[in-house]
Amino acid sequence: MDAAHVDNDLVNVLFTEEQILERIGELAQEIETDYDGKELLIVGILRGAVMVMADMARAFTRHVEMDWMAVSSYGSGTKSSGVVRILKDLDTDISGRHVVIVDEIIDTGLTLSWLSSNLSSRNPASVQICTLLRKPEALQMPVDVKYVGWDIPNEFVVGYGLDYRERYRNLRDIGTLAPHVYS
Ligand code: IMP
Ligand code: MG
């Protein structure tokens, strides 16, 4: 669905499907150059990163392996709980592997800072982070992010995998959620 299908729920559209695909193509190219000649495993963080992973994996012009993790850091609202728990671990043994964690958004940074040190402790050849969106003003933990799609203001956004209470994930565009939806 697009913005027209959720009419009053968005304050604005931040990025259209077209802009998102273009930016993901650029990120994929950058990663491809950096990992030239190396095997690469991209790890998507469920469930939000499903769309980014699907589009990024297909933007590559080389082989790439995909695996998934599920962690919980959010309840059902719009604030981070700060508690990270593994709900689904990797199926892959990453020792000696080059890993890029793919996520859709970094808010407080709690999830990814925890996750990258967790994966780093498994003796991989390398671990880097790629995120489509980042909210610099919301950051509470330093996270070393190599690939960023866009920095955005500290507002709650939905669409393209990003949800509010499991809705809006299938919105093609990314938009700012209107406060009346969650207040
Ligand atoms: P962090 O740990 O605060 O960096 O955020 C972890 C997760 O919270 C992200 O991967 C998202 O799943 C979710 N999240 C953070 N900000 C937003 C938002 O603006 N919209 C929807 N989900 C968000
Ligand atoms: Mg996420």
Write the topology of this structure:
Blueprint: E1 10-15, H1 17-34, E2 41-46, H2 50-59, E3 65-74, E4 80-88, E5 98-106, H3 110-120, E6 126-134, E7 147-151, E8 157-158, E9 174-177, H4 179-182
Parallel strand pairs: 2-3, 2-5, 5-6, 6-7
Antiparallel strand pairs: 1-9, 3-4, 8-9
The structure holds inosinic acid and magnesium ion (MG).
Magnesium ion (MG) is lined by residues 45, 48-49, 103-104.
Low-confidence segments, given as residue ranges, are none
Ligands bound, unique: inosinic acid, magnesium ion
Which H/E pattern describes the elements?
A: EHEHEEEHEEEEH
Query: What is the terminal-to-terminal distance?
Result: 24 Å
Total domain units = 1
Keywords: Cytoplasm, Glycosyltransferase, Magnesium, Metal-binding, Nucleotide-binding, Purine salvage, Transferase
GO molecular function: guanine phosphoribosyltransferase activity; hypoxanthine phosphoribosyltransferase activity; magnesium ion binding; nucleotide binding
Family: Belongs to the purine/pyrimidine phosphoribosyltransferase family.
Subcellular location: Cytoplasm
